[in-house]
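Following up on my earlier thread - several people asked me to post the actual chain instead of describing it. Fair enough. Here it is, all 204 residues.
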Amino acid sequence: MVETQLRKRGITDERVLAAMDKVPRHEFVAEAYRDQAYDDQPLPIGYSQTISQPYMVGLMLELLHPEPGHSVLEIGTGSGYQTALLAELAGYVDSIERQSGLAAMADGVLRQLGYTNVAVHIGDGSVGVPERSPFDAIVVSAGAPQFPDRLFTQLNEGGRLVVPVGASENQQLLLVTKEQGRPVISESVPCRFVPLIGEQGYQE
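Reply from S.P.:
Thanks for posting it. Predicted structure:
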């Protein structure tokens, strides 16, 4: 997976590649899909959610550039796979998931694998976890209809926010850095994520 799907497609951050080589993706998918766990495709995880394709996860982590000691906020815990990767790359991870069943499953796998620098919260990810802010990095694993300013306010100066923004069928992956309190936005690639549901996202 690392050599053929990530490195050959342009992911160059060696820390990201090492983390993705280490974390067992098959532990985060249902038994029925374990033979496809390392294919470069999203897979269903229940609750109308998916685990993202490895390449997209690698790209988002490379853009996010979490460092040891960083505090990270993840919006959309999902299966917990990206959460585990963030735990390998950063100091502490707060992850928020709106589906309590998914949150419980992800938390169980993360604990089973020995990750102690993670807290999984249940709630509206579109508004973040302001009581835990500010964060050095925020990654959103769902498509936002517009720029998530509530999340941006929870970034440290110099922090990074990676988020897909756009219509449900046509999104753009954005890297937003906080410079002198203002967002500096650069576009990455077109993408398609499940919708971000919540106060600052789409309505159910």
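The mean pLDDT is 94. That should answer part of your original question.
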